[in-house]
Amino acid sequence: MSAKPGEYTLRARRQRRIERRRQEIMAAAVRLFAVKGYINTTTKEIAEAADVAEGTLYNYFAGKREILLAVISETQAAIEMVLSSSGALQQRSDIVGVVATLFDLVVSRLAFVRTLLTEAWLDNLILQDFVIERTKQLDQQIQSFIVERIAAGAYRAVEPALVSRMLMGMFAAAVIPVLRGIAPPPNAEERQLLAEELVNLILDGIRVRSDF
Predict the structure, then answer these.
(1) Chain center to CA of 42
(2) Cα 135 to the chain's mean position, in Å?
(3) Residue closest to 107 by CA, chosen among 78, 129, 140
(4) What CATH number does the domain containing 132 carry?
(5) How does residue 211 score in pLDDT terms, banded at 50, 70 and 90?
(6) Do 89 and 193 belong together in one domain?
(7) Band of the pLDDT at 47, cuts 50, 70, 90?
């Protein structure tokens, strides 16, 4: 027997309430992880920050680690969307776009990225399944772009893997001061300019061009 339209509406509302409460718990956890660290944060503190009873929290998550993995999964989905939407990198502007969007993700999820990097240092599962796997995807895309440009005669013969690592290393160098709180988060315009300059430095270097 099929459900009535009213029953579908009630189910949809209930699902939205569940998802909203999950998001509230995850957001509270991220704030606490950023201040106290993952290890020093308790589920009781997360529940209090989310304004729910600790028993209620366990209706949504099995424990603190499941909350962390849920936030990782959400961030992973956002990064995979960036990588899949970029497709095969065809032009310089494609790389700039990916780098700028990754800057956007870091800045918009600053507290969580700090927590993620700390936990990745201590947890091999998080390091392998999230950090390394996402890095491999981006690395392959960049290498493919370099190989195509070399074949087309646009770039001299260089080691694509080295160029890719240099680009990602420069990205890390640009965001580490922000993650450490040494530098303020760049605004949208600054992030775009930073992405363009980073890609230009890798692809063109700092040599004065002969046509200048």
Answers:
(1) 25
(2) 10
(3) 78
(4) 1.10.357.10
(5) low
(6) yes
(7) very high
